[in-house]
Design goal:
By secondary structure, the chain is of the alpha+beta class. The chain has one domain: 3-Layer(aba) Sandwich (Glutaredoxin).
Amino acid sequence: MSTNQQIDDLVKNNPVVLFMKGTAQFPQCGFSGRAVQILKACGVSQITAVNVLEDPAIRQGIKDYSNWPTIPQLYVNGEFVGGSDIMMEMYQAGELQQLLAPKA
């Protein structure tokens, strides 16, 4: 299975996927930690967290997949939402809570 297929399967078969540095329990960068905190503040209890530090192919592959240069990256219902800055803006505007409400 290609890296692109692996990513596609993860994104399409899980309602909330966060490609991040580290794990949801132990984020290894501030942006990834902030992304996890935002999701928890939205009431999301099931996060499929993918630690890009464990697999260089996934780390580069997710950037190619989304055409987005940074990590973390959030996907909800198979759709790319954005990184931690976009998540924060959406959270502050109440948009992220609405998007995630069915998943909480």
